[in-house]
Amino acid sequence: MRRIFRNMGWLLGGRGFNAVLSLVYLALATRTLGLDGFGYFAIIVALGQTVTGLVNFQTWQFVVRWGAGEDGAARAAGFAVGLDIISAIVGTLISAILVATAQLWLPLPDELLWVAFGYCIVSLLSIRSTPTGLLRLRFEYARATAAEAVQPAIRAIGAGLAVVFMPTVAGFILAWAAAEVAVAAALWFAALQKERLDLREVSLTAIPRAHPGAWRFVLSTNALGSLQVAGKQVMILLVGAVGGEAFAGGFRVASQLGQALVQLAQTVSKAIFPELVHAKERAADIARRMANMALVGGALAVLVALFAGREALVLIAGQEFRVVYWAMVILAIGGAVELVGASLESLLVSAGRAGTAFLVRAVPMAIAFACLDVAMGWQGLKGAALCMLGASSLAVIGYWVAILSQQGIRIELDNEEEEAEKRPAE
C-alpha cells in the first residue's frame, strides 16, 4: 500500500499540474473562440482522440504484465512497438474515412476538414503507451510524471501564442498537436534512459508463443480501452451530431470540468494495476480498500462541483457557458462513480478477466448511445450527461457483481479440493 500511495502521489502530482494549466488553456480557448468556435475545436480534438483511442492497444499493460525478467522487458517492448505500428496504419485509414464523411454527420466547415485529418495523423504518430509501460514496469513514476508534464505546459504556451498570433480554431489545434508530439518525445526519452530498446526484438509472435493467452488479453484490453475513450470522445461527437457545434462545445466544457474525477479514476487504475499483478493473493483486499477511499473522495468532489461549479464556469469559460452548469454537476456525479469503479476494473483486468470487464462496460455504453437522441430531445445537455451517468453506474455495478461471482467460483473450487484431499484419508 505504501508503494501504491507513493506512485499515486507522483501521478496525482502530475494530474494536479495538468489540472491547473488545463484551466488556463481552457479559458484562453473558450474566451477566444466563443461557443460555436470552441464547438468546432472540440469536435476536431474528439475526432483525433477517438481514432487514437479506438486503434491504440493498451501496450503499457502488456509491458507491465510480461516485461519482468532479464529479457522480458525487451521482448514485451518489441511486441508493444509492433502493435503501435499496426495502430498507426489502421488509424490512418479510419481517419481518412471519418474525415471524408464528416460533413454527412458532423457540423464541420470545409476549411477545417484538412485540419481535422492532420490532427488525427499527429495523434496517431504520438501514441505513447509503450514508453509509459516501460517506466511503470520499473516503478519510475517520477520520471513518467516529469515527462507527461510537458503536454499541459506546451498546450498552455501554445494557447497563449494562438491568442496573439492565430486566434482561430486552426491555431489552437496546432498548439494541441505540438503538445502531443512533445509529450511523446519526452516519454520515449525518459524510457530509453532506463531501458534499452532493441529493434530486432520487434515481433508480433514472440510474446504469443511464450504466453498462449496473449492475443485474447491484447484484444480484450484494446476493446476495453476503446470503450473508455468512447465514453467521453465519441459522446462529444454524437452530441455535436445531434445538437450542433454549440452543444459539442458546451458538453466538452462540462465534461472537462465535471469529469475531472474520471481522469483521477484513470490515475488510480494506472497506479494500482502493477501492484495487483505482483500481489495476486492480496489483490482483492487492495482493490476494496482503494474503492472505499475513492467513495469518500468522490463525494467531496461532487459537493465542490455542486456549490462552486457555477462560479467556476463563469470565471473560466465566461457567461456564455453558464448554461452547462447542471450538465457539469451530473457528469461530476458520474466521475465519482467511475472513481469508485476504477480499482474494481483493474482487479478484473489483472486477474485475466479483461473480456468480462469489456462486456460489463460495453452493454451500458451501448444503451447510453441508443438513448442519447431521446435524452437530448428531453433535457438537452443534461440528457446527454444523464446517459453518461447511467452508463457509469451500470458498469460499476457490473464490475462488483463480476468480482463477487469470481470469488464465489474460487470458493467452490477450494471446497472441492479440500474434499478431494480428505477422500484418500477416509
TrEMBL record:
Its main location: membrane. Keywords: Cell membrane, Membrane, Transmembrane, Transmembrane helix. It comes from the Bacteria. InterPro entries: Poly_Biosynth_Transport (IPR050833), Polysacc_synth (IPR002797). The chain crosses the membrane at residues 12-31, 37-57, 78-106, 112-128, 290-308, 323-344, 356-377, 383-402. It is found in: Cell membrane. It is a multi-pass membrane protein. One of its GO terms (cellular component) is plasma membrane. PANTHER family: INNER MEMBRANE PROTEIN YGHQ, PST FAMILY PREDICTED COLANIC ACID TRANSPORTER. This is Oligosaccharide flippase family protein. It comes from Parerythrobacter jejuensis.
